[in-house]
Amino acid sequence: MKNVSILVPETAVIEAVADPHYMFKAVNQFLQASGKAPLFNVQLVAVHKEVKLENSLFTVHIDKQLKEVNKTDLIFIPALSGDMKTALELNKALVPWILAQYNNGAEVASLCIGAFLLASTGLLNGKKCSTHWNSANEFRAMFPEVELVDGSIITEANGIYSSGGANSYWNLLLYLVEKYTDRDTAILASKYFAVDIDRESQAAFMLFQGQKGHADPEILRAQEFIEGHFAAKINVDSLAKKYAIGRRSFERRFKKATNNTVIEYIQRVKIEAAKRSFESSRKNIHEVMFDVGYTDTKAFRTVFKKITGITPVEYRNKYNKQTVKA
């Protein structure tokens, strides 16, 4: 029997507590229905006997307090809500318990922006991690020693797991179900919960929001220029000259400030504009491509797929239900 401890932190997102609880309880039922013994002892765990969430809209009655859990096998850290610095301060009592259990052999999985609490333990230092794409810039600023993987659904390193944003954490739940049981059980769970079992990226859902919380005024102006002139032919030399900075120094400062190279930033701004056009207009692929400054169909398709994980046609068909010109 595997002990699964689902933490209930202060300011937790209620769905991210309920969903893993539901998933692993359901897997026990699937196993029993096939004549096997249930595998998971699923418990809600917290500092106090009950936790009020979402301004007391929900009250979660836990199964065990931290002090009552001597040994567990798998810990889930659910997504948190509100200001992350405040949330981490409210939940700092969880950190030593998580560390002690991990050092005693437990695996630890964060769901969505539960990655902030996992990172605060230090267990992610020097490792890869995934979180909600919308929190990426804040996460990097708070935890520069962690390698945040843009667009990833799941990361795994030394018994530490993280998942992408919002519903992406269902893919991590399925991944762990398969690891602890087998592929057939995971497929059954994916069908039961209507989740695409092998989705590997949240890139198609991401909105590019350039990192602007830095203190480099010339680079900020360069970012604003790129975003305001994405259809133009912009290159590194012209930008460096425009802001009277040597090319090498400009590239170094840009990467440090935005976590993107200049070329990556230009590409991401162009592709973000293309995505918005596909979503809201009836323009065809070539029209959108020209609008955002591309003249080579193959190059546009390659960059688009690299950033979003799907082709321009697939993106248009996925997000635009209007009649589109051929």
Strand content: 5-15%
**What's the total helix number?**
14
Distance between the termini: 56 Å
Task: Report low-confidence residues grouped into runs of 5 or more.
Answer: none
Structurally, how many domains make up the residues?
Answer: 2
Could you say which overall geometry the principal axes of the C-alpha atoms support?
A: globular
Strand order in the sheet with the most strands: 5-2-1-6-7-11-10
Considering DSSP H and I runs of 4 or more, what fraction of the residues is helical? 40-55%
Encode the helix/strand succession as letters: EHEEEEEHHEHEHEEEHHHHHHHHH
Overall CATH class of the largest domain: Alpha Beta
What is the count of β-strands? 11
Secondary structure class reads alpha/beta
Largest sheet: 7 strands, mixed
Fold blueprint:
Blueprint: E1 2-7, H1 14-33, E2 40-46, E3 50-53, E4 58-61, E5 64-65, E6 74-77, H2 84-90, H3 94-103, E7 107-110, H4 115-120, E8 128-129, H5 136-142, E9 147-148, E10 154-157, E11 160-163, H6 169-180, H7 183-192, H8 217-228, H9 236-242, H10 247-258, H11 262-280, H12 285-291, H13 297-308, H14 312-319
Parallel strand pairs: 1-2, 1-6, 2-5, 6-7, 7-11, 8-9
Antiparallel strand pairs: 3-4, 10-11
Helix pairs in contact: 1-6, 1-7, 6-7
